[in-house]
Amino acid sequence: MDGPSTDSTTTDLDKAPSSGPIAGPVIGGIVLSVLVCVAYWLVLAGAVPKWEHRGQFGDSFGSLNALFSALALAGVVWTLVMQRQELSLQREELRLTREELKRSAEAQKETAESVRKSAETAQSALRMQGILAATYSMEFQPDPSERAWKGRTKLVLVNPSTLVLAATVRCSFRVEGNLADSLPEYDGKAFWWLYPGQNSAGWFDIAPILAAKGVTADEMHRKCTDETRRSQFTMDLEIEFEDETGDWRLLPSRRHFFDFRLQAWIPELTSTRSPFDQTARRASES
Fold first, then answer.
1. Does CATH number 3.30.360 belong to domain 134-285?
2. Which residues contact 19 (CB under 8 A, 6 or more apart)?
3. For residue 9, what are the contacts with CB-CB under 8 A and spacing of at least 6?
4. Which residue has the higher pLDDT, 249 or 58?
5. Which of 1, 33, 43, 133 has its CA 20 to 30 Å from the CA of residue 235?
6. What is the Cα–Cα distance from 285 to 281, expressed in whole angstroms?
7. How far, in Å, CA of 129 to CA of 119, rounded?
8. Rounded Cα–Cα distance for residues 101 and 106 (Å)
């Protein structure tokens, strides 16, 4: 059987403030007063046996009574002073406790604010990762069975994110340097809806755009040379994506030209100005 544990524990009684500085003198004063009273009556009974003489004998100790009264008053004053000191110590402990609680509350508030900002940053980064992944592809798709050449081109917008996106497409077609009209879907006047993890595809024909400017694909093919092929029929493609949370991304305008000899869209790899000029302008407008 195990012996009693020797581990020391601290109880609430151990933490209670000691009353030694006040209790000792008070108890001593009470005991001394009782002893003096008993001794006084014993001496009085032996020295003055008659009751009529005891009053006179007691009156002779008037100065002694005044001394004891003064001592009692001094004891009361001393007790009050000690109590005042203890109250001061308690008030100081309470003040320190309040300051510590205040510092703890401020630290918890700062921690909560830091956690909130971190969560907002992570959420914003997650949203931006989704919209930054949005992209497009473009492909020329001629139909051999067509009697007349249309120059059909397929444009696909890709949304790999978990949010709904809205997109606007501006093609800015030019025929031999002259701006040409196009359908609202390709002139920035209509929204393309891209649902989470889905693609949206559209088609436009080159022939009607050329016809609006009074030329045909055969004429463009005959006039196509190494010097003219890059400017005969061009498109400055600009796509803007916006998600349901309000974040947006503007893909910089990129020029493509249609090579009538190769029958293909070819993107320009270089430009004479920064492609981010329009992005900066769009950011300043918003």
1. no
2. none
3. none
4. 249
5. 133
6. 6
7. 15
8. 9
Q: What is the DSSP string of the chain?
A: -PPPP------HHHHSPP-HHHHHHHHHHHHHHHHHHHHHHHHHHHH--SHHHHHHHHHTTHHHHHHHHHHHHHHHHHHHHHHHHHHHHHHHHHHHHHHHHHHHHHHHHHHHHHHHHHHHHHHHHHHHHHHHT-EEEEEE---TT-SS---EEEEEEE--SSS-EEEEEE--EEETTEE----GGGBTSSPEEE-TT-EEEEEEEHHHHHHTTT--HHHHHHH--TTTTTTSEEEEEEEEEEETTS-EEEEEEEEEEEETTTTEEEE-S--SS-TTHHHHHHHHH-
Query: Which of 154, 151, 159 is closest to 139 using CA atoms?
Result: 154
Decide: 190 and 184 in contact? Cβ < 8 Å.
yes
Cα(117)–Cα(113) distance, rounded to whole angstroms?
6
* Domains in the chain: boundaries: 22-130, 134-285
What number is the average pLDDT over the span 177-205? Answer: 92
Residue range 23-38, pLDDT digits in tens: 566 677 667 766 776 6
pLDDT of residue 127: 66
> Per residue in 156-171, pLDDT tens?
999 988 889 999 999 9
Mean residue pLDDT of the chain comes to: 80
Which residues make Cβ contacts (< 8 Å) with residue 26, sequence separation at least 6?
Answer: 75, 79
Q: Per residue in 88-141, pLDDT tens?
A: 899 999 999 999 999 999 999 998 988 888 888 777 776 666 788 899 999 998
46, 38 contact by CB (below 8 A): no
206 closest CA partner among 169, 228, 178, 173: 173
CA atoms within 13 A on the CB side of 172: 11
